[in-house]
Amino acid sequence: MFKSDEKLTLPIDEWILENVTDAIIFVDEFGFIVSANQHAEMMLKIDDEAGSLRFAEFIDLEEVLHAWEDEQLVWTKQQPISLVIMKKQSIGHLFCYTLKDGGLKGKKDSLIYRLNHARKSPYEGILMHDRGKLIDCDYAFASMLGYKRSEVIGTSVFNFVYPEDRDYLAQEIQREQHDAPYQIRAYKKNGDTIYVEILPEQLREGSNNIRVAIIRNVTERVENEQQIEFMAYYDQLTNLPNRNYFQMTVKEEIDNIETEDERFAVHFIDIDYFKHINDTLGYHIGDELLKACALRLKQLLDEDIFIARMASDEFLLLQRNVRKDEEIDKLSNQIIEQFRNPLNIEGYDIYTTVSIGVSIYPDSGTNASELIEHADSAMYVIKEEGRNEYQIFRHSLKEGVKEQLQLEAELHKAMQNHDFDLFFQPQYDLKTNRIIGFEALCRWFHDEMGVIPPDQFIPLAEKTGLIIELGEWVIYEACLQNKKWQDEGLPKVKVSVNLSAKQFLQRGLVNRVSQILYETVLEAQYLEIEITESMAMSNEYHIIETLNRFSELGVQVALDDFGTGYSSLQYLSQFPLNKIKIDRMFIQNQSEQNIAIVKSIIHLSHALNLKVIAEGVETEDNLEFLLNEQCDEVQGFYFSKPVAAQRVKDFVDF
């Protein structure tokens, strides 16, 4: 025990002085320490062999309140400095100072208990600070940031906080009351970012600058909330804003419009042929294609352009601050130009175009839903008319779209009710002048709308995906009808069925055709499948594999619409085909060029041991020309229009 004067009599028994748990110091009226127990020596690092020592050498008395009756927090001066709780009491001519640990030790348990029960939240870490300077903390807080406790005590809490959040933290520290916790971003020692929630609490002992705070790591919760928000407002595949975000942005744009002259445009962008590419090359390539398309569109971004993904292969673009219609035309053409060059997707050079519908606020609509709907309507017109172009919405377009929607609804009903019929157009052998087959053609007779042409409902069936079901029905009914004719004693001839691209590229097609032949008991040689030239060029490997399986099954395959593609001839020697079908345009328009093309097709096909059939034969001149060029087979109105199944007997020789 330190004692400055061995003859000094203390107002407390020395044995008690040494055995109490608190640090006790006696100071005279001049500020000199006259006695200190062992606890005080250790706390203040008093040298018991030193001479006269002033109390002010160990305690920062400048921070001590002049008038105080109870305990207050004070700083020690010996390194490392610490915060202690000091109580002063006058005993005779001496002053007795009782000192206790003023950091978290001794207060943490009660503080945590009090805060946890007040906040109803779990404890993670706790710290004590003076205007941002860390006085003390527990191991949990230091570990939360990846430090040792000794590494953070005495430093500024601002060292661990995001620069963007420091002003906010400074404001919160200065506040006297906090009714709720607040959240900031912090750095860990390794540089990682964490989100922390701060529950502040002010100590009222002495200095009002001393604060205590419960710190909770809420990184997982925040990241989950961010992920939920991302899913609600962003498209995960392209990382573009989604339809919800787009609608919200359009609404904000409308709310911020101040004058009647302000306008903006909504561009509805559809990737042409995407479904065909997706079905042909697979969904993985389709996803990569959408990402690449999104990147192309992002190149157009500026302060007046906002881009989002609508759904599937559809994108939305908001064009702000439109002053002239020419600005809409310019941007639409820029979008189209972005897709002039092919997109390289995992070794495939994919050429695609875009169809764009545009609506203008306020002419085309006064809210987000109307503007998107009308832009979609305008885009639909471009899809129907040829694609790779843009169309600005006019209210007259809406009626056409309504008709299409009505027709689509009726098509679904027709599929459910089997409201379709098959008609058959005879095919003739020019050498024998006998019927060698019939092409099965689907017809739709609506009770109220009358006859609906195939060029209206077939593309609609393609668009809605009903073509798969409809196509399978056609194959089944054609095979079933052909078998009925045979059972009735008619000569055995083939029936020819057209396959759509979607139908031909579906998995399990050959197996399904084989099952249909089994169910209808029709021999495979009496079924002929027709595929178009554009289908044949879409996915060479898949096409060859499917055609080989049809050949093994015994089903014949004809290449339809031949001559209308770009790379026709190179495929003739590669594909296992039985017949080439010359497109009607070459027969009905016998220009000098078309005549040359027909002659070349016939001669080349015969050189490859392929038969040739010409469709669209409507006049005697057409027939005479094909006879002279030794065409094998023909069909067309010159011989017969497509007829109902019951009339086929009139054409077949027994």
TrEMBL record:
A Pfam family of the record is EAL
Q: What is this protein called?
A: Diguanylate cyclase (GGDEF)-like protein/PAS domain S-box-containing protein
Q: Which residues form the PAC domain?
A: 180-230
Which residues are in the GGDEF domain? 262-395
- In this chain the EAL domain maps to 404-654
Tell me which SUPFAM superfamilies the record gives.
EAL domain-like, Nucleotide cyclase, PYP-like sensor domain (PAS domain)
Q: Which organism is it from?
A: Alkalibacillus salilacus
InterPro entries the UniProt entry points to:
Biofilm_reg_signaling, EAL_dom, EAL_sf, GGDEF_dom, Nucleotide_cyclase, PAS, PAS-assoc_C, PAS-like_dom_sf
Annotated PAS domain ranges read 126-180
